[in-house]
Structure formats: structure tokens, C-alpha cells
Design a protein that fits this description.
It is a single chain. The chain is globular, with a radius of gyration of 23 Å. The protein has 2 domains: about 80 residues, Helix Hairpins; about 200 residues, Up-down Bundle (Four Helix Bundle (Hemerythrin (Met), subunit A)). The protein has about 280 residues and is mainly α. It is built from 9 helices and no strands. Helices cover about 70% and strands about 0% of the residues. Helix 6 runs antiparallel to helix 7.
Length: about 280
């Protein structure tokens, strides 16, 4: 009985359990997230079919609120309760790796659609001449704005690696500076992508080329915005001293995500902007 009393005493991890695994406390956020996601999906359908935007906005705000409150609780578990033990961190790493793998599948579908349309162009009614890009499309010059956007993203990959180096060495002040630069570069990329879209000579519904172009690059642009917010939160947490050399998986997850975004953009630049414009440069 003495051994049992000793084993069930509170541990250094603050959970009061005799094992290193984190038993998650009852939380309202999974259920609230399901309702918020359903509201957002319903709002999207209503907007696309009936052009009513209020339900879409309400769903977006609901999802954003659940995300903020849920992740706030997770940060509290890590920083205050010390519930993220080494074993738990392994699980978090597997979870983030699988999430990124699922994102790779998303982009694989978009690349598949693009290459299917570009390598077999005659099967599409919008492109009876069988050339790529179609004759009515004027693609972007890959070595103007797209190349600058590529340089911006590659530079942001350098700064986020710099931030990781500083966190590992316990220098949170320099890490915050590097993260601030990364967030700024992410904002710059999104600004230039919006500028690029506003000057496109084609619209989303102008054929298979615009559809595949905007789906692939736009989905990537959405990931850049999400990654920028992710890194901005990490910047705030770095300033607050949440990260230590031995415990900073929140930052590592953001860095993994950002490097994934960088790599996807390199594929987009080579395949869509550069290779996809060769036919137009050669006068079809």
C-alpha cells in the first residue's frame, strides 16, 4: 500500500499520474470546433449559391475563436502545467509530420491536374489547338515578380533557421529578431502575390490554365498566410520566454511548416511559372 501511495503522488510534470503520458482534461473545444467548422462550410455553400456572406463571416469568426482558445489551452499545458513530457513531444512530432504529409497530398492533386492539362492539352475544349499555355493566355514572366517572390521565401527559410539556432543556444532576443524578419518576409510575399493576381491577364473561369494556376498558387498563398500567423505567434512566445533550448516544439512545428511551404513554392515556380511559360515564350 505504501508503494501505491508513492506511485500516485503528484509527479514533476504536474499531472498527478505515475506515467509520462499526458491525459488530456475534458475540453469543450473539439465539439465547439465541429459546430464552427459546420457553420463555416454551410456559410461557404450559401455564399457560392446565394451570394449571402454573413453566415460565411460568422463561421470564419467561430472557427478563429475556437482555434485561439484551444491553442491557448495547449500552450498553458506546455508552459504552466509542464504536461508535454519527452514521450508526449514524440507524439506531437509524429502528429505534425503526418499533418504535413496530408498537405503534400493536397498539392499532389493540384500538380496532377496541372500536368494532366499541360501534357495532354487537346482533350480540353478550351484548348482545341493543343498548345500550352492556350493561345488566349498570357502567362507571367517567371523572372520578374515570381522570381522576386522566390527569393523572398528562400530568404525567409534562412531567417527561420537562424531563429532556431538562437533558440537552441538560449538566445531568445536574437531569436525574436530573426522571427520578426521571417514574419515580415511572409507578409511581403503575400502582398506581392496579391499584386500579381490583381495584374493577371486572365481570370479564374477563363479556362483550364487559369483554374489550375489559381488553385495551385492560391492554395500555396493561403499556406503562406497561415504560416506567417503561426510564426507571429511563435515570435510572441519567444518574447515571453516560452521557449527553452530543451523545450521548443511549438517553434519547431512552425519551422517545419514554413520549410514545407518553401519547398512547395520551388516546385510551383519551376513547373508552373517557368516550364509552363516556355510555350508562350517560344511563340507556341
Amino acid at each position: 500500500m505504501a508503494d501505491i501511495t508513492h506511485d500516485t503522488a503528484p509527479t514533476a510534470h504536474g499531472e498527478g499520474i505515475p506515467h509520462p503520458y499526458h491525459l488530456v482534461k475534458p475540453s469543450p473545444w473539439p465539439l465547439a470546433g465541429a459546430f464552427a467548422g459546420g457553420l463555416l462550410a454551410t456559410g461557404a455553400v450559401m455564399y457560392m449559391h446565394y451570394n449571402t456572406v454573413w453566415l460565411l463571416v460568422l463561421g470564419f469568426l467561430a472557427v478563429s475563436a475556437v482555434m485561439f482558445l484551444w491553442w491557448r489551452d495547449i500552450i498553458k499545458e506546455a508552459v504552466v502545467e509542464h504536461a508535454h513530457t519527452p514521450v508526449v513531444k514524440i507524439g506531437l512530432r509524429y502528429g505534425m509530420a503526418l499533418f504535413i504529409a496530408s498537405e503534400v497530398m493536397f498539392f499532389a492533386a493540384f500538380f496532377w491536374a496541372y500536368f494532366d492539362a499541360s501534357l495532354f492539352p487537346k482533350i480540353f475544349a478550351q484548348n482545341p489547338h493543343g498548345v500550352w499555355p492556350p493561345p488566349h493566355i498570357k502567362p507571367f514572366d517567371p523572372f520578374h515578380l515570381p522570381f522576386m517572390m522566390t527569393v523572398i521565401l528562400l530568404l525567409s527559410g534562412v531567417t527561420v533557421t537562424w531563429a532556431h539556432h538562437e533558440i537552441v543556444h538560449g538566445n531568445n532576443k536574437k531569436a525574436a529578431q530573426a522571427l520578426g524578419l521571417t514574419v515580415l518576409l511572409g507578409i511581403m510575399f503575400s502582398f506581392f502575390q496579391g499584386w500579381e493576381y490583381s495584374h493577371a491577364s486572365f481570370g479564374f473561369t477563363d479556362g483550364i490554365y487559369p483554374s489550375t494556376f489559381f488553385m495551385a498558387t492560391g492554395f500555396h498563398g493561403f499556406h503562406v498566410i497561415v504560416g506567417t500567423i503561426f510564426l507571429a505567434v511563435c515570435w510572441y512566445r519567444t518574447v515571453k520566454g516560452h521557449f527553452t533550448p530543451n523545450s521548443h516544439f511549438g517553434f519547431e512545428a512552425a519551422a517545419w511548416y514554413w520549410h514545407f511551404v518553401d519547398v512547395v513554392w520551388l516546385f510551383l515556380f519551376v513547373s508552373i511559372y517557368w516550364w509552363g511559360s516556355l510555350g508562350a515564350a517560344a511563340g507556341h
